[in-house]
Write a structure and sequence with these properties.
Blueprint (H helix, E strand, L loop, with lengths): L5 E5 L3 H9 L3 E3 L8 E5 L6 H11 L4 E6 L4 H9 L4 E4 L5 H9 L18
Parallel strand pairs: 1-2, 1-3, 3-4, 4-5
Helix pairs in contact: 1-4
Length: 121
């Protein structure tokens, strides 16, 4: 039986935490837990792309999902080059369902076999 994946949400917006929790994920803001995935709000950090690399180093087995209001292809590509496995826009009303869809494959897999979630450019 698989455990419910832990999703670490790094950012001040309550919306993603609520949407993921309602989708059945174990959501945390504590970096002391071992997450299956990290949702990182790039709009809330000074150096977003180096922060992605830091998160990847801190949680090497976790999928990193970058979230930003800057959804132009160059931002998405830079986030992926920095180590993000997926990218969701934060300015669209449907972004919470996008986050749930991006993390949905984690619900079916053991924590140690977290796949790359794919890139939607």
């Amino acid at each position: 039986m698989n455990e419910t994946p832990v999703i670490l949400v790094l950012g001040p917006d309550e919306g993603p935490r609520k949407a993921l929790a309602e989708s059945g994920f174990d959501v945390t803001v504590s970096e002391s837990r071992r997450p299956a995935a990290v949702l990182l709000d790039l709009d809330e950090v000074d150096q977003p792309y180096p922060r992605i690399a830091e998160v990847r180093a801190q949680f090497p087995d976790a999928a990193v999902i970058a979230r930003s209001r800057h959804v132009e292809p160059r931002h998405v590509v830079e986030a992926v080059r920095s180590g993000a496995q997926d990218f969701v826009g934060s300015n669209a009303s449907r972004s919470f369902s996008s986050i749930s869809r991006a993390t949905e494959p984690l619900m079916r897999l053991p924590l140690c076999k977290c796949p790359c979630l794919g890139i939607r450019l």
